[in-house]
């Protein structure tokens, strides 16, 4: 007599496309190129949706670290910016780069480092002594890290009379926090090249030495007034404002955006989608919710949204905070396709998700 349970067991074992735990694809720290130690994290396995290229976190310099999702559709913008930062910093194929804070690789993306032909490594521990050992033993060509950490490490090397052991030529790329101005003369005294890159985990690298590295960067008047401008990336406000001045950046006289003077924009801009290339309003509303969830940016959709437009149109409204003076800035229109590339990439990701949903048959919201 046939055993129906045995037949079911055979059918389960023969299933194609529905993996067991051991068959599930895995994306490790090594796969992402960030397999280095930090003192601010634990290593935790998570189930990451297949429609996301990677999951990372903000640095949390002012609060808790916030989760960030990066869609597959955003990768070309992110990779191109990462490669441009390296090329314009004079980094060439075959060089060795030490990354002092492993999650910074996520801002470049592993693909940008590989396509640039770099070899990269991390510190044995997240401390200045470990960076000193790496500098003296590995003799890297490039170091990427937070500027005050780099400055303090080089000062320690000089106090310990280790200058003879340091690399003779070195390029420092500072990232993550505003540039420590004391690092500028220190690098000059050592004959080291210094570059300052601004960006974030949400969008990748945006500005190098005061010059944008993406074509969808807009600078709009900040409520602080004067020469202050907020950086808008592909139609999405970053919440960061900088003075734009003719006297240039500390690392580049031609760079106008003084990123080391960063301030949070107060009050922030409201982002409202006025027109879309999409056929239906619903997909734009879903994209707006996605932006809030994976980028931490509030995106609203106009009740009079124009669909089937020739280009995306995003309007930024200065938000008045009760009790404060009215915002000095006027509403700003960001019109694509070039200026809204980041938003359009997320809209494309939403469209792909709806057309090729990665659903789990064991979890369905339909009853």
TrEMBL record:
Asked whether the keyword Ligase is assigned, the reply is: yes
A molecular function annotated in GO for this UniProt entry is:
ligase activity
The EC number of this protein is: 6.2.1.35
Instruction: Quote the InterPro entries the UniProt record gives.
Output: ANL_N_sf
Which UniProt keywords are present, listed alphabetically?
Ligase
Q: Is the keyword Ligase in the record?
A: yes
Task: Please state what class of enzyme this protein is.
Answer: ligase
Q: What is this protein called?
A: ACP-SH:acetate ligase
**What is the protein's species of origin?**
Phytobacter massiliensis
């Amino acid at each position: 007599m046939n055993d129906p349970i045995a037949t079911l067991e055979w059918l389960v074992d023969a299933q194609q496309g529905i993996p067991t735990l051991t068959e599930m694809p895995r994306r490790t720290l090594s796969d992402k190129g960030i397999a280095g130690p930090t003192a601010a994290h634990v290593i935790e396995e998570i189930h990451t949706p297949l429609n996301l290229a990677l999951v990372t976190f903000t640095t949390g310099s002012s609060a808790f670290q916030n989760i960030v999702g990066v869609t597959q559709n955003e990768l070309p913008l992110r990779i191109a910016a990462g490669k441009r930062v390296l090329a314009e910093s004079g980094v060439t194929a075959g060089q060795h780069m030490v990354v002092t804070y492993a999650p910074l690789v996520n801002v470049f993306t592993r693909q940008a480092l590989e396509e640039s032909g770099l070899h990269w490594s991390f510190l044995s521990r997240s401390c200045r002594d470990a960076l000193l050992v790496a500098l003296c033993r590995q003799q890297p060509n490039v170091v990427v890290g937070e500027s005050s950490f780099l400055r303090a490490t080089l000062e320690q090397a000089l106090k310990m009379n280790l200058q003879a052991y340091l690399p003779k030529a070195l390029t420092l790329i500072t990232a993550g926090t505003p540039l420590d101005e004391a690092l500028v003369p220190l690098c000059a005294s050592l004959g080291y090249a210094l570059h300052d890159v601004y960006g974030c985990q949400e969008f990748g690298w945006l500005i190098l030495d005061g010059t944008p590295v993406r074509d969808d960067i807009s600078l709009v008047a900040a409520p602080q007034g004067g020469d202050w401008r907020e950086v808008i990336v592909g139609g999405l406000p970053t919440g960061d404002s900088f003075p734009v001045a003719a006297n240039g950046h500390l690392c580049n006289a031609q760079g106008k955006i003084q990123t080391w003077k960063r301030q949070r924009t107060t009050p922030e801009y409201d982002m409202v989608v006025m027109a879309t290339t999409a056929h239906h309003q619903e997909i734009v509303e879903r994209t707006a919710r996605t932006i809030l969830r994976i980028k931490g940016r509030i995106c609203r959709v106009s009740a009079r949204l124009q669909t089937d437009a020739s280009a995306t149109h995003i309007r930024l409204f200065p938000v008045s905070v009760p009790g404060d003076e009215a915002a000095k800035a006027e509403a700003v229109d960001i019109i694509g396709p070039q200026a809204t590339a980041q938003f359009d990439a997320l809209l494309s990701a939403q469209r792909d998700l709806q057309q090729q949903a990665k659903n789990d048959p064991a979890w369905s919201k339909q009853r």
